[in-house]
Design brief:
With 499 residues, the chain is mainly α. The protein contains 20 helices and 2 strands. The protein has a domain of 216 residues. It is found in: Cell membrane; Membrane.
Length: 499
């Protein structure tokens, strides 16, 4: 099992005393993880939901989608961590003796996220989300500087308060389901809850849903529960920032999605939770305009961008049309690839420039053409420019506003995205094409080996031009699970091909 692989890999890191041993153990663990998880993903999308241990662990189309995102981004980030952390050791920022602990907590973080998408029990899912907080808090404060420790404490306090709300919501749901099926662990089994959804007390479900959305929304980074996110992303090592933004936020959104699917089947209908997602999505998207325009720290800029894109995904899910939900699921994949790549490349630039301040980063394209080229691709992808896949996913979501007769919301969303695009253009063009200063650069060399960092951007570009049919069918299965529909997919399949 891939969860066991992650936990065993974590403890293997602690007995590794050299960089060579760390690379070996990490590589072997990644091969096992990719093989086991890949086999499970193929089985789910090819044969339907899978379960083991009497249903204690279970995977359907939605959890298989998140499983794929987790293992792909984890592999990319760990491979990048080899050179990144060795550079930090050489620069004297991290002692060699602390590298095993870094990889230990990274693998524990991966293991908790794998747990989240593997358990069908909403109570155990909560345990997994709380586990991600504990695993990542020490990674956020890994550098042990004052600002890093403050960010770690802020992260723990805000996320723990938020997750407490989610626990309260889960307990309320347990009370509602226990009245029908008895008070046992099975009362929180998502598969049974969906089956008995029409019988659940709507008042209790509504209250529990509000608490769950607020609690898990704090982990997603929805406004106004987002203040931990820019601090944590900016202070953590760049590979950890890539995992936080590309994977952790999606895992918290996955928890909200489980609740959303359940609430849609109750007497509350699809509108209640859908409107909550629309409100959180629109506020998160709109509030990020000012933060992005005025930001001076490049990693904080990317963190605020993550809040924006979580808002975009929430809008697509809240609209509830097949095309909008398809676009939201597609955007989840594309944002994970794009943001992980941006944090990795920006981390490299910060190491070479010795600063995170945007006004001090100038002339990247002339100093390091390969790195600058990848960064420019990241700019186009993260702002949803054609022909990148993010353009296709955002257009699919925008179409949902007009299909659902929300032209004003569609106009506001387009306006917010246009302003954010202008902000990113202003910041990135200066960094890429500005005149390099005379200050001493920490690293003036660049080899062609940096080109492998562009792999996620190439994938995002290819997915903007062509969506492979297996991926399209997999996304259709996820949409069908979220909406609980099946009869409209002949027309839906044609619609997705228009974009």
């Amino acid at each position: 099992m891939f969860i066991v692989v992650a936990i065993l890999a974590a403890f293997c890191m602690l007995i590794s005393t050299s960089s060579r041993a760390l690379r070996l153990f990490n590589s072997l663990a990644l091969i096992a993880l990719l093989g086991l998880a890949g086999e499970m993903i193929l089985r789910v999308f090819g044969q339907g939901p899978q379960s083991i241990w009497g249903g204690f662990f279970s995977w359907d189309a939605l959890s298989a989608l998140l499983l794929g995102v987790i293992v792909v981004i984890a592999a990319y980030v760990i491979v990048y961590s080899f050179s990144y952390m060795e550079h930090e050791v050489a620069a004297g920022k991290v002692p060699q003796s602390r590298l095993p602990r870094y990889y230990f907590w990274v693998w524990m973080f991966i293991g908790t996220m794998l747990w989240v998408v593997s358990t069908p029990n909403l109570g155990l899912l909560w345990v997994g989300i709380e586990g991600t907080t504990l695993a990542t808090a020490l990674l956020v404060g890994f550098y042990r500087q004052k600002t890093a420790v403050e960010a770690a404490w802020k992260y723990i306090v805000l996320c723990t308060v938020g997750i407490s709300f989610a626990l309260l919501g889960t307990m309320i749901l347990y009370a509602a389901s226990g009245r029908i099926n008895g008070y046992s662990l099975a009362a929180l089994d998502w598969r049974l809850l969906v089956g008995m959804a029409p019988q659940l007390d709507p008042a209790l479900v509504k209250l529990g849903c509000i608490f769950a959305f607020i609690g898990y929304g704090a982990k997603v980074g929805f406004v106004p529960m987002h203040p931990w996110l820019p601090d944590a992303h900016s202070q953590a090592p760049s590979p950890v920032s890539a995992l936080l933004s590309g994977v952790l936020l999606n895992c918290a959104l996955y928890a909200i999605l489980r609740w959303h699917i359940l609430v849609r089947q109750t007497g509350l209908g699809p509108d209640f939770s859908g409107k909550l997602l629309l409100v959180f999505g629109l506020i998160s998207l709109g509030a990020m305009m000012a933060f992005i325009l005025l930001q001076k720290d490049i990693k904080r800029l990317l963190a605020y961008s993550s809040v924006e894109h979580m808002g975009i995904i929430a809008l697509g899910l809240g609209l509830g049309t097949p095309l909008a939900v398809w676009g939201a699921c597609f955007h989840l994949i594309l944002h994970a690839l794009t943001k992980a790549n941006l944090f990795v490349v920006v981390g490299r630039v910060v190491q070479m420039m010795g600063t995170r301040q945007i006004p001090k980063i100038r002339g990247v394209m002339s100093l390091w053409p390969y790195t600058g080229g990848i960064l420019f691709m990241g700019l186009l992808a993260i702002t949803g420019m054609p022909p990148f896949g993010t353009f296709r996913s955002e257009i699919s979501i925008m179409a949902g506003f007009f299909q659902n007769h929300h032209p004003i919301l569609g106009f506001l969303t387009a306006l917010f995205l246009a302003v954010i695009f202008a902000g990113f253009l202003y910041h990135f063009l200066g960094m890429l094409f500005g005149t390099p200063g005379e200050r001493c650069l920490k690293d003036k060399g660049e080899g062609k080996e940096v080109l492998w960092l562009a792999v996620p951007m190439i994938l995002v570009l290819m997915l903007g031009v062509f969506v492979p049919e297996p991926l399209n069918q997999a996304l259709n299965q996820v949409v069908e699970l979220i909406l609980g529909r099946g009869g409209e997919y002949g027309e839906f399949g044609k619609l997705t091909q228009l974009f």
